[in-house]
Every structure is written in structure tokens, then in C-alpha cells.
């Protein structure tokens, strides 16, 4: 077996980062979400067809932590929507490569949506393509690209994937 | 007998019956009269099929069609129904092909829809005799794919099942054509990408949404705060002579961000006058020369082309929004964001950044889909009721303000003319 790209402690920390992120975006405490990112981060939610065909359009495309904070504010204060629970189930991350301390990982995810008084449905399915960096506050996402197979969005996406 | 008969309370259209959105028979009649007869429907942009052999599968009304570019560069729209057994054979959403082949019995068609090959047409020779085959009078010329009438203008492709339809220009009429030509002024378009959403509401509600200047400043507080869409912006509402198409034209006030007295334009307590962006680059708006129209420089022009499409200019974000009905209670809504070939990389970035405001997760349009869903719920449960569309009066006419629902009344005046004929 090839030598692992990262040591056991780093692997543990990355697992923890993924688990903490999923827990945060399912908690309805939207202000937690931007804190998983670096200041100059990239967060994109992109349909798979655009990703694979090289079209740059994203469903959401944020290029700073400030934009994520603006989104969190929008969710809470300006975007009218039917409230729903969401539940992320995230697969084990694959470590693809490590370059200059930047750890490139990927993981499959499925998000279930449960509207009040309604059954739970599969809402958004795809994979995270991530770049993780070490910071004084621990590992953070420098980039998180959510490429989703569920190209036909069931009406709207309000909360972070 | 119809399950929910449609009854208009008045001779006008200021009271719209809920049954209009909840009646399956009515829906079928709408598909026939608006999407399959006498109207042009949007199918795509020429830039989506730049090379010979390129195709894109899409929809007119509820019928699957294929937009193709044949080897001679011509654009065609053919129905995705094999002439043999009717199979909707084209399954890819886009690609490049030399011919269209139905896998069921390998009937093959040229990209313009002409039938080219029929396996075993002349039978199969076995032991000195010919078995089977098509009848002697079978002529491939009579059995091509259904080929639609096509019109293109400014890089936008329209098609019609009705070969007797008026010209695209007459269909739009001079008023709407002027705004169409402003956006699609001949420059080559570049495709930035797609967003798709399924909205569980009647398709007409999306036309109404973009004919309703009452809601943006109230539902979308984000818009008002940053001056993008306000009831006191300089604005106009324009229609074609049939009142089926419309344009809402708005110019962002020099006041910019709402504050103090300016915030009063909404007259609602939920308004977030103090909202500040952490990252103002969402609103890095740069005026473009093509915005100029006469002595005006509109920052937003929202065009509704009845029945199938919306053309959006909101500051630097430009897109087409394709309405694809699926039964009376739902439609798919496909957004194609584009730019222009002479855009600088910075302008492309700007268009992409501003696209965060729009689409199925957009700061100001995710909630449009939500309100449509909840309107539809009431229409289904109370089809004998009606809605009230009386802001700005009960009549139909163009205005130089946004405090009116006249465009919706206009659309239903046209609807009644066509559907009650």
C-alpha cells in the first residue's frame, strides 16, 4: 500500500472538520457556517452540468468570508422561505494530494430536506471538492466546491449545503 | 363536465379565478392555444449550438424538441418523436451528432429531421425470396421528424409548431422589439451556464411574477435596501398591443442605498433599512453602453414574452428564463446566464458575482418560487375562489410608475380573448 499523504493526526482532524461542518449546517445556527472558512475563501454550489462542461456559472458563488456572512444574514432576515430541516450525510473524505500545506480532498454528500408536516425527501446530492488549510484556529476550508447531481432543484435552496 | 368550471366574476380581468390554475382541462387547452398554435416559443440561444452537428434537447410547452445545427450551418428545431413508433429517442441533453438515430429500430434522420434510413425497408432476402419490407409506396420524404418553423433574432432561437404563425417581429410588436433588440443587439453571446428548478405551481404564475412590480420592493427587501428596485425609481411599464408581452423598465436612483426618509418607500415595518453588506462586491455595478435607450439608461429591464420566456437584465446580470410547463400544477424553470463576446474578464466576473442575486438560491429570486408554491396550494384547495388584481385600477394600460398590477390584467385580457374564442 502506498504511503498515506497525511499523518494520522491530520486525518483525524480532517474527519472532525467534516463532521463539525455537517453538524453546523444542520443545526439552524447559520452564523456558525462562515467560521469554517478562511477570510479569502471560495464557496461554490454548482450544478454538475456546468462543472463538467466548463461553464463558470454557479447557483451560489462566494469569494470571501464576508459573502458567507451576508448569506447567513439573508437566510435569517431577508429571504422569505418555507422553513425546513436539513440533514447532511457525508461520506469519508478522500485525500487527493497535498501541495504547499494545502490538503485537497473530496467527499460524497447527500442532503435530506424535511418540511414541517411533510415527509423527508432527498434534496441535494453531490460531492464536495475541498481545499483545506491549517490556521491558528485549526483546519479551515480555503475552498469548498459543492458539485451537485440534483440539477433540478426542488423549488429553491436557501440554507448552506 | 369540467371538474372546476372557470367563472370570471366581472367582464374585466381584475378578479382572476383560482380555477384558472387548478383545472387540468383548461391546462390542456392552454397548451394547445398558446404553446402549439399561433405563438412563438423560446428554444435557446445560437451560442448553445455553435458548430455543425451540435444539438440541444429542450421543451416547448410539454413537448420535447431538439434544437440542431445542420452541416450547412442552418438551425432547425425538430420534435423528439420518432416517425415510426413515437419514441422520444433523444436522451442526451446536448452533444454533437452527424445524424439523429432512434435506437428502437434504428430509423435515422438528418439534423433537419429528414428521414434517411429505415432498416429492412426493402425486406430481407432469404433462399431466393424477399421477405417483408415496407410497402412499395413508402416514401421517406413523408416520414421525417416533425420540423418546426424557426426564427432567430440577435442570437435567440424561437420555434413554432404552427407554420402559419405571424413573423417573430410581428409577434413581439414594435414596443417589445425595441427592448429585445437593446439586449440582443447583434453581439455574439457567450454561455455562462445553467440553473434549473422545479416550481410546484402553475406556469402562468411565473409570467405574472415578472409582470408584477408590486412585489419586488416588498418581498425582496434586499432589492430595496440597495436601491436596485424601488417603488420610487424612475420606471415604466410597457406592453405589446395585445397586452400579452410586457417590459418592466427601471432605473436605479442616484440615491443608491435607502436610508432615512428614503426607506419610507416600502411603508413596511419588516424593512431592513440598516442592512449593510460585509462584502459590497455583490453590488459592484458598472454601467454598460448598450443600456442606453433613447435618452434613458435603464438599470433593469424585465421582459416577459408570452407564453414561454423571460429575458432579464438586472444591472450587469443577463439571462433567459425558460418556462416549461408540466401539468397544471408545476413547471420547470431553466435559467441560461450569458455574456457577450466582447466582455472583459472583469465583466464576466461581475456578471457571475451578481448572479448570486438570481436563480433558485438567489438572494432576491429564491423566494419567488416559494410564493408561487404557496399560491398554488390555495388554488387547489379552493378553486371556486378568485384573486384580486386591482392595484392601480381595474383597467389595462401602460404606465410611468410601478404601483400597479396592470400588466397582469393585460395578460388575462389576452388570455380571455384566446381561450374564450
TrEMBL record, chain A:
Tagged with keyword Oxidoreductase: yes
Keyword annotations: Oxidoreductase
Span of domain SnoaL-like: 13-144
Gene Ontology molecular function: oxidoreductase activity
UniProt key word Cytoplasm: no
Domain of life: Bacteria
SUPFAM superfamilies: NTF2-like (SSF54427)
Family, per entry: Belongs to the bacterial ring-hydroxylating dioxygenase beta subunit family.
Name of protein: Salicylate hydroxylase
Organism listed in the record: Limnohabitans planktonicus II-D5
From TrEMBL, chain B:
Alphabetized Gene3D superfamilies for the sequence: Naphthalene 1,2-dioxygenase Alpha Subunit, Chain A, domain 1 (3.90.380.10), Rieske [2Fe-2S] iron-sulphur domain (2.102.10.10)
Keywords: 2Fe-2S, Iron, Iron-sulfur, Metal-binding, NAD, Oxidoreductase
Domain Rieske, chain residue ranges per copy: 40-159
Entry annotated with the keyword Transmembrane: no
Molecular function as annotated in GO: 2 iron, 2 sulfur cluster binding; iron ion binding; oxidoreductase activity
Cofactor: Fe cation
Oxidoreductase recorded as keyword: yes
Pfam entry (one): Rieske
Residue spans crossing the bilayer: none
Family: Belongs to the bacterial ring-hydroxylating dioxygenase alpha subunit family.
Protein name: Salicylate hydroxylase
Amino acid at each position: 500500500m502506498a504511503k498515506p499523504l497525511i499523518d494520522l493526526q491530520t486525518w483525524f482532524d480532517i474527519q472532525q472538520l467534516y463532521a463539525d461542518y455537517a453538524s453546523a449546517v444542520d443545526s439552524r445556527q447559520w452564523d456558525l457556517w462562515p467560521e469554517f472558512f478562511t477570510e479569502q475563501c471560495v464557496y461554490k454550489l454548482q450544478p454538475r452540468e456546468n462543472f463538467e462542461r466548463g461553464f463558470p456559472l454557479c447557483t451560489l458563488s462566494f469569494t470571501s468570508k464576508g459573502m458567507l456572512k451576508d448569506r447567513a444574514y439573508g437566510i435569517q432576515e431577508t429571504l422569505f422561505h418555507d422553513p425546513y430541516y436539513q440533514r447532511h450525510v457525508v461520506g469519508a473524505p478522500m485525500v487527493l494530494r497535498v501541495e504547499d500545506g494545502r490538503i485537497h480532498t473530496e467527499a460524497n454528500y447527500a442532503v435530506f430536506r424535511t418540511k414541517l408536516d411533510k415527509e423527508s425527501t432527498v434534496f441535494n446530492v453531490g460531492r464536495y471538492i475541498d481545499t483545506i488549510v491549517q490556521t491558528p484556529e485549526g483546519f479551515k476550508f480555503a475552498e469548498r466546491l459543492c458539485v451537485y447531481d440534483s440539477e433540478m432543484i426542488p423549488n429553491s435552496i436557501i440554507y448552506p449545503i | 363536465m369540467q371538474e372546476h368550471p372557470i367563472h370570471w366574476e366581472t367582464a374585466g380581468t381584475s378578479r382572476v379565478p383560482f380555477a384558472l390554475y387548478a383545472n387540468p382541462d383548461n391546462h390542456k387547452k392552454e397548451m394547445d392555444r398558446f404553446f402549439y398554435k399561433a405563438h412563438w416559443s423560446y428554444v435557446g440561444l445560437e451560442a448553445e449550438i455553435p458548430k455543425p452537428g451540435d444539438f440541444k434537447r429542450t421543451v416547448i410547452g410539454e413537448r420535447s424538441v431538439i434544437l440542431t445545427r445542420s452541416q450547412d450551418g442552418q438551425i432547425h428545431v425538430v420534435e423528439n418523436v420518432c416517425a415510426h413508433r413515437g419514441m422520444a429517442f433523444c436522451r442526451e441533453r446536448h452533444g454533437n451528432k452527424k445524424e439523429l438515430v432512434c435506437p428502437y429500430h434504428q430509423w435515422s434522420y438528418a439534423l433537419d429531421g429528414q428521414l434517411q434510413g429505415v432498416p429492412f425497408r426493402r425486406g430481407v432476402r432469404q433462399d431466393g425470396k424477399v421477405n417483408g419490407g415496407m410497402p412499395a409506396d413508402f416514401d421517406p420524404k413523408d416520414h421525417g421528424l416533425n420540423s418546426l418553423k424557426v426564427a432567430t433574432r440577435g442570437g435567440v432561437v424561437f420555434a413554432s409548431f404552427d407554420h402559419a404563425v405571424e413573423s417573430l417581429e410581428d409577434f413581439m410588436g414594435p414596443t417589445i422589439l425595441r427592448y429585445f433588440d437593446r439586449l440582443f443587439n447583434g453581439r455574439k453571446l457567450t454561455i455562462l451556464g445553467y440553473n434549473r428548478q422545479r416550481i410546484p405551481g402553475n406556469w402562468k404564475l411565473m409570467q405574472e411574477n415578472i409582470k408584477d412590480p408590486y412585489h419586488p420592493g416588498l418581498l425582496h427587501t434586499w432589492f430595496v435596501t440597495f436601491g436596485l428596485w424601488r417603488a420610487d425609481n424612475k420606471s415604466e411599464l410597457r406592453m405589446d398591443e395585445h397586452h400579452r408581452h410586457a417590459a418592466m423598465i427601471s432605473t436605479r436612483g442616484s440615491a443608491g442605498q435607502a436610508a432615512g426618509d428614503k426607506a419610507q418607500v416600502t411603508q413596511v415595518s419588516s424593512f431592513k433599512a440598516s442592512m449593510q453588506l460585509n462584502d459590497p462586491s455583490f453590488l459592484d455595478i458598472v454601467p454598460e453602453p448598450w443600456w442606453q435607450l433613447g435618452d434613458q439608461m435603464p438599470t433593469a429591464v424585465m421582459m416577459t414574452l408570452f407564453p414561454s420566456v423571460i429575458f432579464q437584465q438586472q444591472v450587469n446580470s443577463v439571462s433567459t428564463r425558460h418556462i416549461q410547463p408540466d401539468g397544471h400544477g408545476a413547471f420547470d424553470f431553466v435559467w441560461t446566464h450569458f455574456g457577450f463576446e466582447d466582455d472583459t474578464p472583469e465583466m464576466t466576473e461581475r456578471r457571475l458575482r451578481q448572479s448570486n442575486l438570481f436563480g433558485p438560491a438567489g438572494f432576491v429570486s429564491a423566494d419567488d418560487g416559494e410564493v408561487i408554491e404557496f399560491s398554488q396550494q390555495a388554488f387547489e384547495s379552493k378553486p371556486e375562489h378568485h384573486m384580486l388584481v386591482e392595484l392601480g385600477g381595474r383597467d389595462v394600460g401602460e404606465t410611468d410608475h410601478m404601483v400597479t398590477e396592470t400588466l397582469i390584467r393585460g395578460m388575462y385580457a389576452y388570455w380571455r380573448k384566446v381561450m374564450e374564442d
